[in-house]
Amino acid sequence: MSLDMTPTEPQGAIAEARRQAEICNACRYCEGFCDVFPAMFRERAFSDGDITQLANLCHNCRGCFYSCQYTPPHDFALNIPAVLADVRAESWERHAWPGGFAELFQRQGVAIAGALVVGIAAIFLFMRAAGGGAGEGFYAFLSHAAMVAIFAPAFLFPFLVLTFGIRGYWAEVGGSPVRWSHFAEAGRRTANMTNLSGGQGQGCNFEKGDRYSQARRHAHQATMWGFLLCFASTSSATVLHYVFDMPAPYGLFSLPKLLGVPGGILLTLGSFGLVALKLKADPALGATARWGGEMAFVLLLGFTGLSGLMLYAATGTTAVGWLLALHLGAVLTLFLLTPYSKMAHGAYRFAALVRDAQVRS
């Protein structure tokens, strides 16, 4: 008796991913590729949790698609990058709260993000007109107390939502108690972005078809390190304010600026670099129904970095008020949308790498 490996009627993403994974498991041509395939080849049968884990290990580099002999027009019609992208996005939506909003953002992300940035900026402008602040620099437009009251809950909200989401994900993929060595291994792979370097380190096939490129890996690294530097800048300013009684504004050679300016540059260049690469890439090899949400996330990251740099450049001019409102609107929108946008992929992918390190140890 032989197995029928041809696609039939449309089915759920997990079921279709399971069909394709079973074919890959029989072929094993892609064994030297990213972490997905060693994890896949360890199994003989795939539960829903196994498929979810494989999907979140996948970085959508697309090398497997261009190397595969079973892609369309072959009857097997394999498209591993696309089906895992669908499963991956569904897993974020399934574990987010409220789930309905996550699904809505994935399909109407640009409109939602744009409306939130403009709406929140308008609120800040109204607050400024109503009273403003009494401090120096930016605090002359909005007081430090008001910023803390607004942004502290906005930061805690996505953190809590993602924490419960990762908890649900960990249970779904069969995770067990973790050792520090698992975190260290996952951290190393995250920092190096090993899975975007191809099986032999030559890069991935995201934007150039069957030609390899390191551009996406470099853009991802610029975006990630830029975001982390900006976060470190804000954290250092918090420490200076509350521990050393050194409130803002800070000079160019202060720690917040030495971290924040390079961070803003990296974040802006990396994000808009990812936008350019995404426009070049074949949409059929990703989650096509969620293209708008993915693009909104990257555009929002880039605009956050760019508006911060513009705000710093405009210090001492009359443009500071409305630039500050736009920048704060972008930052607050980024925080609020984190559990529902592709920003969540960082948390889920790290959890997937921790689980993979756990299984391999």
Describe it.
With 361 residues, the protein is an all-alpha fold. It has helices at 13-27, 36-41, 48-57, 63-67, 80-95, 99-130, 144-172, 180-192, 215-242, 255-280, 291-313, 320-337, 345-360. Helix content is 66%, strand content 0%. α9 (215-242) runs antiparallel to α10.
Key descriptive features of the protein:
mainly alpha; 361 residues
**Amino-to-carboxy terminus distance:** 37 Å
Largest sheet descriptor: none
Would you identify the regions where 5 or more consecutive residues have pLDDT less than 50?
A: 1-10
Helix content: 55-70%
Number of helices: 13
Q: What structural category do the secondary elements indicate?
A: mainly alpha
Provide the β-strand percentage band: under 5%
The general outline is elongated
Please compute the radius of gyration using only Cα atoms.
22 Å
User: What is the helix/strand order?
Assistant: HHHHHHHHHHHHH
Chain-averaged pLDDT: 87
Count of strand segments: 0
**Domains, number:** 2
